[in-house]
Amino acid sequence: MTRERSNHPCTVVIKLGSSSIVHEKTHQPLLSTLSSVVETVVSLRAQGHKVVLVSSGAIAVGLQRMDLPSRPKTLAGKQALAAIGQGRLIGLWDDLFRHLGQPIAQILLTRGDISDRTRYLNAVNTLQELLSMGVVPIVNENDTVSVSEIKFGDNDTLSAITSSMIHADYLFLLTDVDGLYTANPRKDPDAKHIELVTSISAIREKVSTTTLGSSLGTGGMETKIIAAEIATGAGVLTIITSSKSPSDIAEIMEYHNAQRFSLGATSPAENNDADTAPTADLPRPRHTAFAPSPIPLRDLKSWTRHTLFPSGSVVVDTGAHSVLSRRESGGRLLAAGVLGVIGAFASGQAVRVVTPKHRSVYEHLIATEAAGVHSTGSTRPTTPSIVAASSVSSSVASLEPLSRSGSFNVLSEAVTDKLAEPEEPQFQESEVVEIGRGLAMYNSAELTRIKGLKSTYIPQVLGYADSEYVVENITIHAPP
Ligand SMILES: N[C@@H](CCC(=O)OP(=O)(O)O)C(=O)O
């Protein structure tokens, strides 16, 4: 029985690496590949799909223009060549699309551009507007202003972030190999092609990522797996396939759409065999498919996790870690679970959520605090928050008398301590391990003062409380 084919309109991101755009040695544009991509995109558009192209190649085209043999070593050299090549590259795309009456737009992004929520939303709005106008946006990294710390690093990551920004259904990573292999297929005749990936961490152990990669691009299989991790986490079905036959894109979509949309399924991840069984009547063009997460990250969480550079870290105790690992936590952290902060950050900035690497670091801190009791002659620890934060229950217990008094004018000693000068950070980055990321609701100095306290005491310590949580929109990383 032939299954009914799905015409579900999709949003598709297609990424081409430098080695698919220009010849590796001569740096001449690969006109037949580019023309075939253009025909495919125009045909997808005619079927009602929205398409974004992520095109590398500015540096490579710049090399050809300046008749240089290889990528310069210096950052400024690469930036200059990208500035020379980008205009030509977009001109080339425009020429090809113009023959088929398809308008295009150039979008140049840096991670710095979209790590600010407002600018990120502006970029999203522009992309959405262009798509609804029937335009094909062509995205590249804005190499001229990208310096090491604001660089996407490679266009695989940029394409994954783009696909997450516009809630794409598909991300196609077109490259010089037709998918992921267990080993380098050019060197190992026993290398096996992988059709479907449902667990990225499992696949990392199975495959060699040293495969291929040209002298032109910065990506390789490793960056494609990272891109797949970002995109599938945002609910995007990610495909690695060869750039030699871009017309396969439509067939690959048809193959997967038959199960994704005709069968009422939301993703192939619902059924590990779904990649082959339900579409047996359709040909399967050679590719590797990465199943999208059945529970995609919400836009804000995906943005926080992948597009922001954390400005500092919030150290949490094991109790908070285990609560945050549960879905019911809603990705929100209370001050009671905070042991300390590292670095300086403002409210609204992204922070790492970390735990002490070795329990001994944490115990050492408590011991140091306890030693402080004797050296100061005080009857209580000088920084009771550390002791209070050793478990959520102890932090609650230490403040209960005030809580029971019901008076917000009477401050306990613990709270009075919080009104003192902010303490110095007590953890080092080398002593902690990152478990997730989120958005700080208080700045680092404020958080130092309220760490370990019940939320009801925040107004007494700070004089205000914008949120009962200290970090929100936390995404906890999957265990390695
Ligand atoms: N933005 C750079 C490309 C970065 C890069 O090398 O990407 P890729 O070829 O996809 O590994 C350019 O246009 O030359």
Task: Supply database-style keywords.
480 residues; alpha/beta; Carbamate kinase; Archaeosine Trna-guanine Transglycosylase, Chain: A, domain 4; 2 domains; six-stranded mixed β-sheet; 18 helices; 16 strands; 17% strand; Glu/AcGlu_kinase; proline biosynthesis; transferase
Polypeptide structure, described:
Residues 265-287 are annotated as: Disordered. GO terms for molecular function: ATP binding; glutamate 5-kinase activity; RNA binding. This is Glutamate 5-kinase. One of its GO terms (biological process) is alpha-amino acid biosynthetic process. Keywords: Amino-acid biosynthesis, ATP-binding, Cytoplasm, Kinase, Nucleotide-binding, Proline biosynthesis, Transferase. This protein has helices at residues 18-21, 31-46, 58-66, 75-99, 111-114, 117-132, 155-165, 200-206, 221-233, 248-260, 299-307, 318-324, 359-376, 384-388, 392-405, 413-418, 444-450, 458-462; strands spanning 11-16, 50-55, 104-109, 136-141, 170-175, 180-181, 193-194, 196-197, 237-242, 288-290, 312-316, 333-334, 338-342, 350-356, 432-440, 469-476. With 480 residues, it is an alpha/beta fold. The chain folds into two domains: 11-290, Carbamate kinase; 310-476, Archaeosine Trna-guanine Transglycosylase, Chain: A, domain 4, CATH 2.30.130.10. The strands form three sheets. An eight-stranded mixed β-sheet has the order 3-4-2-1-5-9-10-8, sandwiched between helices. Strands 12-16-15-14-11-13 form a six-stranded mixed β-sheet. The chain has a two-stranded antiparallel ribbon with strand order 6-7. Mean pLDDT is 79; it is low at 263-278 and 372-411. The structure holds ligand VHF. The ligand N[C@@H](CCC(=O)OP(=O)(O)O)C(=O)O binds at residues 17-18, 56-60, 82, 140-141, 143, 154-156, 217-219.
